[in-house]
Amino acid sequence: MEIHIRPLNRSISVQSGANLLEALRDHQVPMSYSCMAGRCGTCRCKVVEGTVLAGSADSFQPGGSGDPYVLACQTFVTEPCTIEIPEPDEIVVHPARAIKASVVAIEDVTHDIKRLRLKPAKPLEFSPGQYAHLQFSPEHIRPYSMAGLCGDGEMEFHVRLVPQGRVTGFIASTLKVGDAVRVSGPLGSAYLRRKHAGPMLCVAGGTGLAPILSIVRGALAEGMGNPIHLYFGVRSPRDVYGLEWLQDLKRDYVDLHVHVVVASSNGQVQKGHRTGLVTEAIDADWGALKDWRAYLCGAPPMVEAASLLVKRKGIAAEQIYADAFYSSGT
Ligand code: FES
User: Fold this and answer.
1) Is the pTM of this model over 0.85?
2) How many CB atoms lie within 10 A of CB 88?
3) Burial code of 284-316, b = ≥16 C-beta within 10 A, e = fewer?
4) CB burial class (10 A; 0-12, 13-18, 19+) of residue 71?
5) Hey, which of 71, 126, 191 would you mutate to test ligand 1's pocket, going by the most ligand atoms within 8 Å of its Cβ?
6) Integer Cα distance of 290 and 299 in angstroms
7) CB-CB neighbours of 62 under 10 Å
8) What is the pLDDT of residue 329?
9) Residue 81's beta-bridge partner residues?
């Protein structure tokens, strides 16, 4: 049976029951993937026509209320269909793997955020903006975004300590320099799109600054000259961190504009910082955002509010890249 691929306007023949990602790869269709296990989201694509079997038993009916997006690695083709693959010129293939690393430093950057630096035994390939699972012990595993680039030699993560948090409490009080950490990844689809030349809106809430730093560092390393408007939203003045890293980036990246936005002015707001919500600041600063791309990283309510705002301002859903951080609180 035939699968028609958009926007390439190409058809491939596959057997009934074929795994969609395998079929696309077998036919050299440019497609991003990583984990092959339904976890990383990189192989997400849209079913435009036809019915497929997504996951174990759920079938998707176009036109129904179901989500037209499927993970190709978890999808089986049972009848002719049309699939829309995302950004064929922005393919990212970093097969997911697990590597050993050791703790190089655990530093306080605010009253409740630690900067964790690891030395990997071998480099883990990833794209700027992606994340990995860090396993500190068999019972202590959490996803964290890389703040640096894969050629750095060290991996950097920002950890916000959750009150009574089991894993973050372990990081704060038990983990020490020299300890082994297992790093599995990369995961995530909110990675830097290197082919895009227009303005980039980068929104970081709290430790969402880590993947945004990675994205800006990646844009700099790639020699991209896109205007970048970075909005860093925090709860109160004492939650602001990383200003010196942002300052360094601004020195090297001519068209980087940084806005620090503090939600509660309860305390002394530093000169040059704004008060309110990041979404209010973006709304006040910009009209239509046509041809922009948005990278949204932080807690789910901020990511959802920012996503709604930028859609309203004209950024297509496919050009909004977001991996919300869910803190489990345990
Ligand atoms: Fe399909 Fe990771 S490759 S979800």
Assistant:
1) yes
2) 14
3) eebeebeebbbbbbbbeebbebbbebbeebebe
4) buried
5) 71
6) 25
7) 15
8) 39
9) 3
User: For each successive 10 residues of the chain (330 residues), what is the average pLDDT?
Assistant: 92 95 93 85 90 64 62 94 90 90 98 97 95 95 96 96 94 97 92 95 97 98 97 96 98 97 84 95 97 95 95 93 61
Best residue among 20, 22, 32, 43 to mutate for probing ligand 1's pocket (most ligand atoms within 8 Å of CB) is 43
Name which residue sits closest to atom 4 of ligand 1, judged by CA: 38
Return the pLDDT at 236. Answer: 93
**Domains of the chain listed by start with CATH number:** 2-84 (3.10.20.30), 97-187 (2.40.30.10), 200-324 (3.40.50.80)
Ligand 1 centroid distance, CA of 259 (Å): 34
Identify the three-state secondary structure at position 306: helix
**pLDDT reported for residue 291:** 93
Taking CA atoms, 95 is separated from 55, 63, 98, 259, in Å, by 20, 33, 10, 35
pLDDT value of residue 93 = 87
User: Pocket around ligand 1: residues whose beta carbon is below 6 Å from it?
Assistant: 33-36, 38-43, 71, 73
